[in-house]
Design brief:
The protein is α+β, with helices and mostly antiparallel strands. It is built from three helices and three strands; from the N terminus they run E-H-E-E-H-H.
Length: 114
């Protein structure tokens, strides 16, 4: 099974975005990164705010201990791409930026096949 962790992160300092994504993935899930793929950025509420969210897909390496902040609750669950697609289709996964990351990932996968 190919392990792909679609992960999103808001980055304030543009030039450090990939390093921050690698660090945040390790801190929040315990996973190291074998390879990081940029999925671009988007404005979650264009016209209302200038907030910009950078999206990444990480091919995960080894797992270790997470270093979450006190009170931070994150549930990480391994699923295949097919299982994740089913969660999205059934409305079980509804995180807006996560859905944007998934759309970016699928678009790039399809573009490689064209």
């Amino acid at each position: 099974m190919r392990q792909l962790f679609v992960y999103l992160i808001k980055i304030i300092v543009k030039k450090l975005k990939e390093e921050a994504a690698v660090r945040e993935l390790k801190e929040e899930t315990g996973y190291s990164v074998r390879e990081m793929h940029s999925l671009g950025a988007f404005y979650p509420s264009f016209g209302s705010t200038n907030e910009k969210i950078w999206l990444f897909a990480a091919e995960c390496g080894e797992t270790g201990e997470s270093a979450r902040e006190p009170g931070e609750v994150i549930k990480a669950e391994k699923v295949t791409e097919k299982e994740f697609m089913q969660l999205v289709a059934e409305g079980e996964f509804m995180h807006g930026a996560g859905l944007a990351a998934w759309a970016g990932y699928l678009t790039r996968m399809l573009a490689k096949k064209i």
